[in-house]
Specification:
The chain is an alpha+beta fold. Helices cover about 40% and strands about 20% of the residues.
């Protein structure tokens, strides 16, 4: 592992811990050249290569970072930590692998993301919804905010997110 400070690849592991329910190993390393410490994370590579089917029918490789980037934009200047965003992405990813085969629709990913974001932060939810649902005018913002205020959850405990 190359040291991020001096770029040497001589280090030793000083501490290892599993994280995220054992799916990730966090390692604290000490660079033997410059004596600085840094952290690395190891995640098992998924043997299943997942493909995302987009709205236009095109197919792209699944990339967890796209979920994180979209949620980070929605959470800009909100009291949401990177850990909370990563946890949200982890939950979405678990649901994808639990329910889907080798292909997953971008709509499914969006629905799973927006469901969890609504629970996490209402303002970030409206921001994300404005892009995801392709709001065309300010009235759609107002309508979504009113819906959120009037119906935070459906009677069965499930949040109603999409009006078809």
């Amino acid at each position: 592992m190359r040291c991020p400070f001096c770029k040497e690849d001589k280090d030793k592991v000083v501490d290892s811990r599993s994280s995220e329910g054992g799916r990730i190993v966090r390692r604290r390393r000490l660079c033997l050249a410059c004596q600085r410490r840094f952290t690395t994370y190891e995640r098992a590579e998924d043997s299943i290569k997942l493909t995302v089917v987009k709205k236009d029918g095109s197919r792209v490789p699944y990339d967890r970072q796209r979920i994180i980037a979209g949620v980070q934009k929605a959470c800009y200047k909100r009291p949401i930590s990177l850990k909370q965003i990563e946890d949200l992405a982890e939950e979405v990813e678990e649901e994808i692998f639990r329910r889907q085969g080798q292909e997953v629709s971008s709509r499914f990913i969006g629905e799973e993301t927006i469901t969890r974001l609504r629970k996490l932060d209402k303002v970030a939810y409206v921001r994300y919804a404005s892009v995801y649902k392709e709001f065309a005018d300010p009235d759609q913002f107002v309508s979504e905010a009113q819906e959120l205020k009037q119906h935070p959850q459906d009677p069965d405990g499930q949040q109603k997110l999409f009006r078809e």
